[in-house]
Amino acid sequence: MNIEDKFPKTLPKQHQNIQPGIESEMNPVPIYDLPEYHNNSKRLKGKVAVITGGDSGIGRAVALAFAREGAKICIMYLNEHGDANLTKELVEKSGSECLLISGDIGCEEFCKNSISQVIKTFGAINILINNAAEQHCVNKIEELTKEQLERTFKTNFFSAVYLTKSAVSNMKKGDCIINNTSVVAYKGHELLIDYSATKGALTTFTRSMAISLAKNGIRVNAVAPGPIWTPLIPSSFNEDEVAKFGANTNLGRVGQPVELAEAFVFLASQGASYITGEVIHVNGGEIINA
């Protein structure tokens, strides 16, 4: 059965007043796992993966896919404890281990301490997924406050720098970093001015770190999602915008988190051993010439 058969093309009007949003309060709940997407070939057996924003959305789907492939999981998240505990339960049901770390990844000291906790718990870090993000709409540049600009960059971009700095000294040849950028890094977005800029910065950071870490045998790549049904959407846009979200893609629908997971698994696996500095676009058919 296809995704189209499991999920309505038209989304109900809804809005959440808290960022980055609560998955359990979404209607309908995003599809983060499907049996037909399971591979279970243990491509990541023995690996330790750190996933920011792993409590819900794309991060949850990636955590479950990685766990089925044999990886131990650390999920870093802000304060969505209900979502995080459910993801932990699902990861453990798959036969893997899951460490939860709650806090603000925009703080460098928190990032340092978190990586230390991962090493203390699992003894290694092999895969770093910089996935967590926040976004806030503004109708014009004059509405973009200094506080919002700094906050968005701290969460979306500075955190990736902080975590990469802390992680690389514990990583070895064959390990990898995958950054979650966005289609808006390439095309921009009228309402998400600062968010788009952070994703552009993250894309360039991916390319720079791929060059920098090549001598260490550490690969750095990115995934650029299009419109994906995650808690960030109803917590960012008004009800009318949510109802039509994703409808203008070539496939005519919003994407589901489970449809991103395999791209991350591939980039983390030996199947992508000759790929670094690249971006995989999962966006429903939008052609990005960049």
TrEMBL record:
BP terms from Gene Ontology: bile acid metabolic process
Superkingdom, taxonomy of origin: Bacteria
Keyword list, A-Z: Oxidoreductase
PROSITE patterns with a match to the protein in the record: ADH_SHORT
Gene Ontology MF terms: oxidoreductase activity, acting on CH-OH group of donors
InterPro entries in the cross-refs: NAD(P)-bd_dom_sf, Sc_DH/Rdtase_CS, SDR_fam
CDD domains in UniProt: SDR_c1
Coiled coil segments of this chain: none
Family indicated by similarity: Belongs to the short-chain dehydrogenases/reductases (SDR) family.
Matches recorded under NCBIfam families: PRK06701.1
Protein's recorded name: SDR family oxidoreductase
Species of provenance: Clostridium tarantellae
